[in-house]
Design the sequence.
């Protein structure tokens, strides 16, 4: 523990339209940190463009057993940008994430802190089981499989939502802010000594999940475009396979025409070939366009998040 820092643990919690659940959140934070004052806790609430008065309600609550700050962003930038904003003002020895619905129990902080004492610089918490729909489970399983196969061999099969890391890692994230990127995958790929624990995700007490389908699709695309060359390689492989198929198909047509004279030419076959060919071309161009757009976006150096104001409670 470094005595130069005022806080030992910073907990960063993104807030987006969580007005109803804030009393439950604050009550649990007060109770938990009241039992563990040795953590010298700081909770950084990042108001990610809420429209329901969440930030104002947070200011009205009594934060008794921990130091609290509210960072208000100028608009909704997304949860990953909100987490980065929290890291940018934290100076604690250990930094971890949690969420307003508290589906990930606060007791994880103690378990992950124990792992850091053993010399680990990054500690992941992955879910043992979740009560989600078949579609969500399928999406998560597919995402984890593809990430493990094409990007990170150490990617956990059931994913992760919670991570704790030390000041060294926090400084790396703070000084290397990546746009259109997953902060979790950035940390995972740093290569510092890391381990993991497992836990059972709890049911949400109030409100609805902000993890929409559009956000899942964006994360899926961001993960592969930012951390893997698999899409580009897929374009190359598809091109090679199509060339081989076209070459063999040409030999087949010429042979049937010369030997059997029974192959009638027709528009259906031609249209099928053109449809498949143009479809693959458009998919390939779409993948390449993703890379070009992200290169252009990075070259503009626009801020990933903009802090409107910081309120210390």
Sequence:
């Amino acid at each position: 523990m470094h005595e130069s820092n005022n806080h030992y643990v910073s907990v960063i919690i993104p807030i987006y339209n969580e007005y109803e659940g804030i009393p439950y959140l604050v009550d649990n934070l007060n109770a938990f940190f009241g039992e563990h004052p040795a953590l010298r806790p700081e909770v950084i609430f990042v108001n990610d463009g809420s429209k329901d008065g969440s930030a104002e309600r947070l200011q009205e609550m009594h934060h008794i057993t921990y130091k609290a700050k509210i960072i208000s962003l100028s608009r909704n930038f997304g949860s990953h940008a909100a987490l980065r904003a929290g890291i940018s003002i934290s100076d604690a020895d250990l930094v971890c994430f949690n969420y307003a619905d508290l589906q990930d129990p606060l007791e994880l902080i103690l378990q992950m802190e124990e792992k850091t004492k053993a010399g680990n610089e990054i500690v992941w918490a992955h879910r043992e089981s979740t009560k989600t729909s078949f579609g969500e489970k399928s999406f998560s399983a597919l995402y984890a499989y593809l990430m493990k196969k094409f990007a990170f061999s150490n990617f956990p099969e059931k994913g992760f939502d919670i991570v704790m890391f030390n000041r060294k890692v926090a400084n790396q994230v703070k000084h290397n802010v990546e746009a259109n990127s997953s902060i979790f995958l950035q940390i995972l790929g740093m290569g510092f000594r890391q381990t993991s624990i497992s836990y059972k995700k709890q049911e949400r007490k109030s409100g609805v999940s902000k993890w929409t389908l559009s956000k899942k699709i964006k994360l899926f695309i961001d993960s592969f475009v930012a951390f893997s060359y698999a899409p580009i390689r897929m374009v190359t492989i598809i091109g090679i396979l199509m060339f081989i198929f076209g070459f063999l198909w040409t030999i087949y047509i010429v042979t049937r025409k010369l030997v059997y004279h029974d192959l009638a030419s027709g528009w259906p076959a031609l249209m099928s070939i053109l449809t498949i060919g143009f479809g693959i071309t458009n998919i390939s161009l779409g993948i390449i366009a993703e890379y070009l757009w992200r290169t252009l976006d990075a070259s503009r150096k626009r801020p990933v998040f903009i802090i409107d104001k910081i309120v210390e409670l």
About this structure: The first strand starts at residue 9 and ends at 15. Residues 289 and 295 are 10 Å apart (CA to CA).
